[in-house]
Design goal:
Blueprint (H helix, E strand, L loop, with lengths): L8 E3 L2 E5 L5 H10 L1 H4 L15 H13 L4 E7 L2 E12 L5 E8 L8 H15 L5 E6 L4 H10 L2 E12 L2 E11 L7 H6 L12 H8 L8
Parallel strand pairs: 5-6
Antiparallel strand pairs: 1-2, 2-3, 3-4, 4-5, 6-8, 7-8
Length: about 220
């Protein structure tokens, strides 16, 4: 598989650009400054601790990009690094899908920066990469992130029990997705024009209740 070209995407003062090795110092500073804000949502390794190593993280992201399976971006506002967005698990052919993950600094949360970045990345994947489906999985407790998919109209698809290892344990996630046919004129344009379906991202009461209850595990 040929490496995917990582573009630079812009809307107003928000820029998504390819992550670079020289971003390590600035990225580490933002991560450390926002430790309390981000720790509860950080992916972790089972049985391992959490260590911020921006250089190693960037090397890993760029390796996935070279293999054609990822588009790692940083999010900038007026030229200042304020977060990351990663398009991962890129698959072509009969599946033609990818997953989006993201974070932003607490100081810029709630300003529309994250939905703008997610919309830019999704539109690029649909229009330029010709992917068919984009997915975002979010912990039930992560209300700021849930607001992103609500704003953009990502459709709720279901509960994934103990899906990703986050902050030291296996955590449930709600899954949301869009397919290209749902947004023929683009995610960003639909949002800006106020045409997002109001209930697309609505989580069922049953799944909310299930996520609030511990999963019964088999006796050992």
């Amino acid at each position: 598989m040929a490496p995917a070209t990582i573009p630079t995407l812009r809307d107003g003062d928000v820029t998504l650009r390819p992550i670079r090795a020289r971003d390590a110092k600035a990225l580490e500073r933002v991560l450390l400054d926002n430790r309390g804000w981000l720790r509860q949502w950080e992916a972790t390794y089972p049985g391992g601790g959490t260590v911020i190593d921006a250089r190693a993280s960037i090397r890993n992201l760029l390796a996935h990009a070279r293999s054609g399976h990822a588009l790692p971006f940083v999010i900038e506002v007026d030229g200042e690094l304020v977060g990351q967005l990663n398009v991962s698990s890129i698959t072509f052919g009969s599946l033609s899908s990818a997953t989006i993950g993201y974070w932003v600094a607490q100081s810029v949360a709630g300003r529309g920066i994250t939905p703008t970045a997610v919309a830019l990345a999704t539109d690029y994947c649909f229009s330029s990469l010709r992917l068919h489906r984009m997915e975002i999985c979010i912990r039930p407790e992560n209300h700021p992130s849930l607001r992103v998919v609500e704003k953009l109209g990502f459709r709720y698809e279901g509960l994934r029990r103990r899906f990703i290892h986050i902050n030291g344990d296996w955590r449930d996630h709600f899954a949301f997705a869009l397919v290209a046919e749902e947004v023929p004129r683009g995610v960003l344009r639909r949002w800006r024009e106020g045409r997002v379906p109001g209930d697309a991202a609505r989580v069922t009461a049953e799944d909310r209740a299930a996520a609030a209850s511990p999963l019964r595990l088999a006796d050992r």
